[in-house]
Amino acid sequence: MIRNDIRKTVFAQEMDKDQLKYHFHTLAQKYIHNIDNLYYVAYLEGDCNENQKVQKLLEDLKTFKEMARTTTEEIVYDDDLVISLKRHDDYGICLTSPERYDIFFLEYLRNMETPRILVQIRAAPLWMEDQKELLEETIDKIKEIIQKHDLKILNVKENRIDYAYHTNCIQNPNQFFKDENIEKYLQTEMEFYTQSGRIKKNKLNKEYLALGRRKSNNTFIRIYNKTLEIIEASGKNYFIKIWFDNKIISRYDRYCLEHAFKKQEFDYVYEAAMLYYLEYGNDQIVKDAINSILQDPNTTLCDRERFATRYFPEVTKVTNIEFETKRKFYYNSDSMIETLPHQECSPELVRIYRILDNRKLFLNYLQTSTLNFTDGEKRCDWWDRLNRLKIDWWKDSDAIAIRDYSSRLHKERQLQMTVNKIGKAAVYNQDYETGFEHDILNVLSNLNDNHKRYELIDSRTKEPIQIIRNSKYLKDYDLYKQKATRRIKPLLDKRR
């Protein structure tokens, strides 16, 4: 599918059918589903504040925590876990598998209904790893920890499960989020809502709708622009590859989003569109105009956006529709949950599997009784597509490739940020006309109290190193430094 707004652009009209498909094809109104966060709690057999075995476990863990506090570093607990100083509400002891999951321990039980252990599994491994293996790993880790003190798990219960749907079906959020549209089709048992967005060029851009309250003990639902979030407010760049692999976004979209991610600002998608045209476009007059804009230190992101929107398509927007469910959401279904079938798993995780394996039951309720978009007779098409989506455990044939992709983007973002900061440091040092080699040596010199001057020497040949200036990280260094000079020099001049 090629969107109509794409076909109308100058760039698209240069292309034949095959070229259009290569650069801009996506699947129409595509949805993918996954668990986005998963918290569960574990109770220990015979647990109470007077249980000496439990107290010995806590004392051992607190010894590691005190070491971490003293050194202000994470202390290795075993091959996979480290002690972290983070906490979750009253749960003050944390063992973490970095960027994957946390296992929290409570030092004092307020009452016998309070679980001793809370596990939080993060979004990244839930999207990029085998969820079954991940769940089994967390419960095995808990058992390893407590068995050292002759303790056993009594039972495990869900604490919070977030069900996420990503879709390209909402390309005009301003229209979608209009009050009259929501009121026309909305049916909900929720009592509170929140809307928000950004103001751009004195125009309101609505990007976020939430139903319920975040601190609710039951359900919280939000519908928002996920594309913005992954560029500016999170490190979840792996979604770019997942979306592309599932044809939610196009090759052009992927290029633009990757570029904006490295710059940490969404509006760089317009600069990316111009760079993409330099690589794939045909009109030399347009290319000359692009080069003129990109090489002019006086142009702004607004200038680039103004030019790009005349010639190139907008990047595909991806919307996240997320149902955050807490323990009380499942409370009234306890007896029914106990009868549900489940796949083979560790006995401690049976209840969690019964919910996840049969999540369609709970999603149907959420998408009908808790929240529904209907004209009174039938569901709105976009909501009906969401409800009819086949639900299964997330399976990805190339999870390693997604992790490698994410790591590469993070590395490139950090390298680009480092290069830019060297240029900014040079401006603050009032080195306005110097090049990258001088500037990086100046940074190294200023790190020493004696301001000793360094040279870049090849350790093998003992010859001076020549920086390759056509590196993708350095090709715009001089231009970036000119812009930084324009912003910072007037401030420095005032301080003299």
Architecture of the domain at 38-159, according to CATH?
A: 2-Layer Sandwich
Question: Mean of residue pLDDT?
Answer: 88
Q: Shape, please?
A: globular
Number of strands: 13
Strand line-up across the major sheet: 2-3-4-5-6-1-7-12-11-10-9
Low-confidence stretches: none
Give the helix/strand class.
Answer: alpha+beta
Could you describe the largest sheet, including whether it forms a barrel? 11 strands, antiparallel
Strand content: 15-25%
CATH class assignment of the domain at 38-159: Alpha Beta
Tally of helical runs: 22
The first-to-last residue Cα distance is: 60 Å
Assign the CATH topology of the domain at 38-159. Answer: TATA-Binding Protein
Give a concise summary:
With 496 residues, this protein is an alpha+beta fold. It is built from 22 helices and 13 strands.
Would you mind describing this structure in some detail?
The protein is α+β, with helices and mostly antiparallel strands and 496 residues long. Among the domains are: 38-159, TATA-Binding Protein, CATH 3.30.310; 399-494, no CATH class. Helices cover 46% and strands 18% of the residues. The protein contains 22 helices and 13 strands. Strands 2-3-4-5-6-1-7-12-11-10-9 form an eleven-stranded antiparallel β-sheet. The chain has a two-stranded antiparallel ribbon with strand order 8-13. It is globular. The chain starts with a helix and ends with a helix.
